[in-house]
Amino acid sequence: MALKKVKGNIERMFDKNLTDLVRGIRNNKENEAKYISQCMEDIKQELRQDNLAVKSNAIAKLTYLQMLGYDISWAGFNIIEVMSSNKFTLKRIGYLAASQSFHCDSELLMLTTNMIRKELNSQNQYEAGLALTSLSCYISTDLARDLSNDILTLLSSTKPYIRKKAVLMMYKVFLKYPEALRPAFPRLKEKLEDPDPGVQSAAVNVVCELARKNPKNYLSLAPVFFKLMTTSTNNWMLIKIIKLFGALTPLEPRLGKKLIEPLTNLIHSTSAMSLLYECINTVIAVLISISSGMPNHAASIQLCVQKLRILIEDSDQNLKYLGLLAMSKILKTHPKSVQAHKDLILQCMEDKDESIRLRALDLLYGMVSKKNLMEIVKKLMVHMDKAEGTVYRDELLSKIILICSQNNYQFITNFEWYITVLVELAQMEFGSKQGHVIGSQLMDVCIRVQAIRSFAVTEMGQLLEVYTSTSQFTIMQEVLYAAAWLTGEFASELESPENTLRSMLKYKSLPQHIESVFIHNIVKLFAHIMEKHEAAGNYDAILELSDSIACKMNESIKSGELEVQERASTALIIIDIVKEEIAAKNSSKLMDDIEDPLTSQPEELVASEILSLFKGELNPVAPKAQKKVPVPDGLDLDAWINEPIQSESDSDSEPDNTENLFVKSEKLDYGNKYQYEPTEEDIKKNREARKSEQQNNPNYLKGSLDSEQSSNGHDNVETISVAELNLDLPPLRVLGEKRSDKYLNLHKDKTKGKKKNKKKKKHRKSESSSDENLDVAAVVEVKQVMELPEGATLSDSDSDHHRLDDPHRALDIDLDLPPISEVLAKKPPETVDRPQKEKKKSKKKENKGKEKKPEKHKSEKRKKAKVENLLELDKGADGEPKAENKTKKPKKDKKKSKEKGAKSKTKNSTSGYEEALGISTPTKEIYPS
């Protein structure tokens, strides 16, 4: 035996320990994988030996390799073997490996139950602490159920080291086994007054985490926490307690009255910024909860805002961010207090940190009013010109639109200004992805604000002309969607619809959904123009327009997109029908004029039939209208319309060409789509059209063969054609000024005029009031009607309160109610005796009413007791239960009366809440013995 032991020690001298493994990995960086595979083979050889010291050394090396990303789940039995060692140094290595490699779903955990129970009951505090620390990493539901009583007994240990770890471990047990919370809560409550500060802090931490889900259960602990808040000097624990009070004050507003004074004292005295931030947050929550029952706390709000200003002005970016975050919470309830610091918020817009600029943007959203809206938007647009980064500029653009459109355009006094701002945003030269936001705003304003419709549609017509006349693409494509739709839908508002139609016919390559809208609204515009020409008898102009539209549709019908093809083919058919009808009417008109022009009768207009296709008033639709449409009976939305075709072979060598034949794939680029193969005639026509366009374009530098061959450029100077440009251009604008600025100047002039009128005599007040009535904002009406399906309302909400992936979901239990197992065990007696009572009913009909009365009485009483437990009704001043519970008692059941007497005694006990805070007890706790 001795020789064997000596031989094992000699072999161990040549084993590699953890230090050798780390050194070897660093020295073999080029062949790291090969070296580690060799080490793995050595480790497997070591694990086969009987010596636990050798096995622990191998497990230590496996733990390091696991941190590098290698799988060591195959060594689970060896890890448990090292965990069961009698030596603490070896045991510690095994528990460390278990905490890193085991998880709650590991199948080997069932082998560790008795071993961990033995460690928990050990006399050595470090062994018990080691087991608790490791168990917290991989505790499962079965382990929590089996070991909850053993961990609970450790709460009363004489050693603070064990008590602290046991308190923290109980939280992990509650997450996996929530039923352990009921028997453990009284012990946990005692630890809040533990003499050791570490145990006390651990208990506070656990209770604060438990209160995240159902804070009502912990409202009775308010006196203990209030005492800790006023006596403790531990900033970390104070932060936790103040957070808990912030969750408790909405449940008990009287608690907030007592918290204002100590919280303001902490704000004045503390130098810790983290504690200051939590105090301000809780003061805000308290003032929100007690705002209806107490006078205005303007001094507390001003104090919070002043302290937050100090945080925002600090050089530390983290403190600045937190200050802006807390300021946004005050803004929701006390906007005037924050609006006084508008200059500071605008300074934050120039900060280097993008997150701080975004927080400042959120604050500006709430600081807007009718007076300062134009000024704030102008500063944001100037800031957008200077800002860098597409993500931030996109956020800035969306925030400008949110600021203007909030509360159904509540703060907009001039909608012409808003339309101009949207057009300027659409023409900004940067790669923004917010074009759909601008387009939806333009459509929403035009539909809901009828007074601005003519101005907006005219702006959209000019936008289309700019798009088709310039060679550079400076307008967001999604805005063209709105421009085409608005000009087609409200064509009657256009001054020159024919010019708009001709500019729309010059559209270039566009995405499918935009090009299809262009084609559809070209038909709308054509029908509107045709109505005027047809009424005037100008049939030649109609035929000329029809030819232009047909030529453009013949190009679009060759598109690779099905939607564009369908719209273009439909438009072509309509144009062909119109041509036939107009040609027939033109010939009949000539015949009538030759025969007798006086006897000719006006015929029905062809345009009216086309316009009837687009009739109908448009109203804004509610955002969630589609979700509220009821699903018809018998319709299964999850069932396949056609079963998917299963391919026989999934090899990549044979590409499937019919994969996206009828469905557009989002991953396909426009350049890779199927293109129509033009014939020689089409190529010739396109070449001639391009040459004619170049000849008529004055901005195109034309050349000739002679000029190319000549070496001296002076020979052909006279041959250069000079065209006189007679363009009706708008007056030259100074750089830096925008069209929206004129509305801001008008707004300032009006406000100055109003201030001057206030200084005049009283008889001038009537004139100033008449001037105010001339403002457009007073007569502009925004449609508030939102279309919804029948039976649906706007108040319907889709709440996702109970999320399945929430780890704290199981803690949402009511500690005042008994557990479900006890309720199921104690079934009411009438459910058992029901067959006997049914027999008695058939025999004795006279006693039917007598038996029903006590049953009914008992069921009503049980319901009433449940309601009292759920709602936690307040008792009288002396703590006695209400008289209704005492009067109606059945004399037959003596046992139940005794139980009710015991319950009333427990309800009469006070919890010390009135002594600490001076208010009545909001909840009464009944814990099972």
Notable features of this structure?
929 residues, mainly alpha, 0% strand
In a nutshell, what does this entry contain?
The chain has 929 residues and is an all-alpha fold. 61% of the residues lie in helices and 0% in strands.
Describe the structure in your own words:
This protein is mainly alpha-helical and 929 residues long. It is built from 43 helices and no strands. The longest helix has 34 residues, at 562-595. Residues 678-816 form the AP-3 complex subunit delta domain. One of its GO terms (biological process) is protein targeting to vacuole. This is AP-3 complex subunit delta. Residues 646-665, 673-714, 740-929 are annotated as: Disordered.
The average pLDDT is: 76
**How widely separated are the two ends?**
57 Å
Helix content: 55-70%
- C-alpha Rg (nearest Å): 41 Å
β-strand amount: under 5%
How many helices? The count is 43
Mass-distribution shape: elongated
Low-confidence parts, pLDDT < 50 over ≥5 residues? 597-601, 650-675, 704-715, 732-736, 761-778, 830-858, 866-929
Q: Which structural class best describes the helix and strand composition?
A: mainly alpha
Number of strands: 0
The largest pleated sheet is described as:
none
Q: List the quaternary state of the chains.
A: single chain
